[in-house]
Amino acid sequence: MTTPASATAPPKGRPTGEIPLGQDLPMATQAAVPFVEIETLRVKQFIPAAKEALSSLIAEQGQTKLIRPVFNWAGRNSLFPLHWGLACCAIEFAAGFGARWDAERFGVVPRSSPRQCDLMIVNGTVTWKVAHKLITLYEQMPEPKWVIAMGNCATGGGPFRTAYSVVPGVDKLVPVDVYIAGCPPRPEAMLDGILRLEQLIRERKE
């Protein structure tokens, strides 16, 4: 039995081997997006977003990896304590800056003006009569600033803690970062407290 020629012949109007684009590939009949529009979209949206993300990443990494460590390094190596004294611990404070202990080799230089200081070493008994002066000096110091309570009297009132006129610890008035025990503590103890404060400054995050 032979097959009719009409069944095997290709349909008229279509070349042999051509794929019907209208049915098999529907996207081929749609208009393509011009390259110029794609580039315009990329310039307007994707590039600014990428720049902003990269800038924020660089700023965050620079703050934590470069800027903050440099500030901490400069701060801990140039401490300016307030040049003042309250009681017998002030003698040890003064001796710590003499030729024998030489606290200035650690970058610790006393200043007389609280507006140029970033460290207050409370070196003696704090009475309620002088408390408001101490708070005024602390508030006049610029940020960042730190406080060291030197000796038992500044730490908790010492042997006079039950007296009506004595503040039972300078931390009742201002925040304290380092406490130094002793009555009075020697200059070496004061230097050890300063080195501990420098370690706190090294680890500071903000």
Describe what is shown at a glance.
The protein contains seven helices and three strands; from the N terminus they run ααααβαβαβα.
Could you list some keywords that capture this structure?
about 210 residues; mainly alpha; 3-stranded parallel beta sheet; elongated
What do you see in this structure?
The chain is mostly helical and 206 residues long. 44% of the residues lie in helices and 6% in strands. It is built from 7 helices and 3 strands, in the order ααααβαβαβα. It has helices spanning 5-8, 21-24, 35-76, 89-95, 128-140, 152-156, 187-202, and strands at residues 119-122, 146-150, 178-180. It has a 3-stranded parallel beta sheet. α3 (35-76) packs antiparallel against α7 (187-202). The longest helix is centred in the first third of the chain and has 42 residues, at 35-76. 23% of the residues are buried. The model has no long low-confidence stretch (mean pLDDT 80).
